[in-house]
Design a protein that fits this description.
The structure is a single chain. Helices cover 60% and strands 19% of the residues. A hairpin with a 2-residue loop joins β1 and β2. α6 (115-158) packs antiparallel against α7 (163-214). By secondary structure, it is α+β, with helices and mostly antiparallel strands. It has helices at 3-10, 34-40, 44-47, 52-55, 64-74, 115-158, 163-214; strands at residues 15-23, 26-32, 78-85, 93-101, 106-113. The model is unreliable at 210-218 (pLDDT under 50). The protein has 2 domains: 3-113, PAS domain (Beta-Lactamase); 117-212. Strands 2-1-5-4-3 form a 5-stranded antiparallel sheet, sandwiched between helices. InterPro entries: PAS-like_dom_sf.
Length: 218
């Protein structure tokens, strides 16, 4: 690692942790920049020389160690989105990790707290389920109004209907058509608002994750 690279990491707004591979799936933490220390609530004395599992108890469960090992062996860069990471000093958070090999025996992880973005996506999924329910409900009532109207028109063809009955039935058809028009208008408004809300959330997600995706780690 060069002094220029460490200076870059020191001043990076993204969290950076460098691991030293001691043995297969055994990684020692040898560097955390200030953003990483702030995110974890750690001081340099607390992480220096510690194994990854000493700081991140769930590192094996979430597959982080496996990815570090893969990157070390293959030299490929891996981006792991929305890993539910927690340290002994911080709450569980959803993080996006960009992991890349430096020179032997070092591997670097650049990461950001994407808990808010993750919650946005979950909210979109929740809203979509509500939207599907609304679509099913609206579709059911549209079919009901349409079937009733078609039945009345078929009745006119099948039998003789008095003028009074015809006027009464035509009012029902008119009311059904107005209901259909109202429901379609409501459905279009619902879809439009949902699409706009999702676009805003996704745009915010793209903005928040832009720097991590484009970050140069070596």
């Amino acid at each position: 690692m060069t002094e220029e690279l460490l200076n870059y990491y020191d001043n990076s707004p993204l969290a950076v942790t460098i691991y030293k591979r001691l043995a297969p799936k055994k990684f020692e933490i040898c560097y955390c920049n200030s953003a990483s220390q702030d995110m974890e609530g750690l001081s340099e004395e607390e992480y220096q020389g510690k194994l990854i599992e000493d700081i991140y108890p769930n590192c094996f469960d979430i597959g982080l160690v496996d990815v570090l090992e893969k990157v070390f062996n293959c030299g490929t860069t891996e981006v792991v989105p929305f890993v539910g990471s927690n340290s002994k000093h911080s709450l569980v958070s959803k993080r996006t990790n960009r992991i890349q090999k430096l020179g032997d025996p070092f591997v670097v992880s650049v990461f950001s707290d994407d808990s808010q973005t993750y919650s946005y996506i979950k909210q979109i999924e929740k809203d979509n389920r509500k939207l599907n329910h609304a679509l099913d409900y609206t579709s059911h009532h549209l079919r009901g109004n349409l079937s009733t109207s078609l039945g009345i028109l078929e009745l006119f063809d099948a039998t003789k209907v008095s003028d009074d009955e015809k006027q009464f039935l035509l009012k029902i058809v008119k009311q059904n058509l107005e209901n259909i028009d109202s429901k379609i208008h409501h459905l279009v408004t619902l879809l439009y608002n949902e699409v706009k809300a999702d676009e805003k959330l996704l745009q915010k997600h793209k903005f928040n994750s832009f720097h991590l995706r484009k970050s140069k780690v070596s």
